[in-house]
Amino acid sequence: MWAQVINALLGIWLMAFPAIFETDKVIANNEQIVGPIIASFAIISWWEATRAVRLYNIPLGFWLILAPWVLGYDNNTALVNETVVGVLVIGLSLVKGKIEERFGGGWSAIWSKNPTHVQEARNNPIK
Amino acid sequence: MTNKKLTDDGIPPGWSYNPASWPQRLPIVGMAMVGFGIATYLSLFQLNIVADVWEPFFGEGSRKILTSKTSRILPVPDAVLGALGYLADALAGAIGGTRRWRTMPWIVIAFGVLVGPLGAISILLVALQPVLYDSWCTLCLSTAVISIIMIGPAMDEMLASLQYMRRVKDARLSLWKAFWGNKEIEQKVI
After folding, report:
1. Which of A29, A30, B61, B122 could form a disulfide with B144 if both were Cys (CB 3.0 to 4.6 A apart)?
2. Nearest Cα residue in chain B from A104
3. Which residue intervals define the domain Vitamin K epoxide reductase in the entry (chain B) (predicted)?
4. How far is A9 from chain B (nearest CA, A)?
5. Residue B134 CA: distances (Å) to CA of B129, B131, B156
6. Are A39 and A11 in contact (CB under 8 A)?
7. A112 touches chain B (CB under 8 A)
8. Using the beta-carbon criterion (under 8 Å), do B163 and A111 form an inter-chain contact?
9. In this predicted model, what pLDDT tens digit does every residue of B149-181 receive, in sequence order?
């Protein structure tokens, strides 16, 4: 979970960056849109049942690395910042952390063949 | 042989805890009530019942955001809709006993579905503040944080209900009846 706490802080850092470094509107818009999305996905994945949501931040991390080139940044501080944050977000999103509870096989157990909850229900019938 | 885990504690099969127990649900209901309180206060400002709005960090930010064009896109100010959303969340979190993941899947699934979009709208509104209006609104950001924090804890209960519906389907019983709660199905399917 600590990895996703750091990712949430990185998202908030992106939101604050344009005001602190007085960037132009293109950079500001990108960071003020991507920042809150990264922070939200990270916060949702603090809980074990929704830990998989952390993976949604991987494409956003790649976007941060590409954005300075795609959007043509002329601000090196912002370029370095987004590249470093992008790499960190990707790396930290891969950290699954401890899963201590059991969830009947998780979300894929809704459709997968013979999942944990179906087996346990069969082994422990009502009567 | 009876399923002691289920009958005594309401723990779903294959789970280590009951996601519909009160210690699991009360914090979410409490957070939704806080969101409701803040959104109600912001509504009072938007409806001109309160003249000023509390803003400790961003100067005229809250006033700018709360009187912006976006906040008046719909016939009612957006904080009023937010307040109604949080109230619906609190109710959907509070209704039903500790076995409601199988006795009333409809409320659990409605709860999960309510929490999701409210969170998505919150993220959108957070991004729009600086992008369109170059300002921030402290209390608006606080309610957004509340919406996002509520998503994770609401989802585990929905997962238990959806897994129950899967077992009903495997037993070739009516998913429609199970969704609204059905005593006969509850006696056949764990």
Report:
1. B122
2. B14
3. 27-151
4. 13
5. 6, 6, 37
6. yes
7. no
8. no
9. 999 999 999 999 999 999 999 999 999 999 999
Q: Which two tokens stand for residue A112?
A: 């997968």
Q: Answer yes or no: do A125 and B190 touch at CB < 8 A.
A: yes
Tell me yes or no: is domain B20-155 CATH 1.20.1440.130: yes
User: B88-123 pLDDT, tens per residue?
Assistant: 999 999 999 999 999 999 999 999 988 887 788 888
Q: Choosing among B8, B24, B126, B157, which should be mutated to test the A contact, i.e. which has the most A CBs within 10 A?
A: B126
Question: What is the amino acid identity at position A38?
Answer: I
Q: What is the dihedral of CA A13, A76, B58, A44, to 10 degrees?
A: -20
| Distance between CA atoms of residues B15 and B105, nearest Å | 17
Write the pLDDT tens digit of every residue in A78-125: 999 999 999 999 999 999 999 999 999 999 999 999 999 999 999 888
- DSSP states along B45-98: HHTTSSS----SSSTTHHHHHHTSSGGGSSSS-HHHHHHHHHHHHHHHHHSS-T
Measured CA to CA, the distance from residue B186 to residue B168 in angstroms comes to 9
Which two three-digit tokens encode residue B177? 């009846």
Residues in chain A closer than 8 A to B148 (CB atoms):
39-40, 43-44
Q: Which residue of A has its CA nearest to B170?
A: A118
CA distance B19 to B35: 22
A chain contacts of residue B130, beta-carbon cutoff 8 Å: 15, 18, 28, 32
Query: Rounded to whole angstroms, how far apart are CA atoms B173 and A112?
Result: 19
Instruction: Give domain limits for chain B.
Output: 20-155
**How long a stretch of residues is chain A?**
127
B6, closest residue in chain A (CA to CA) = A126
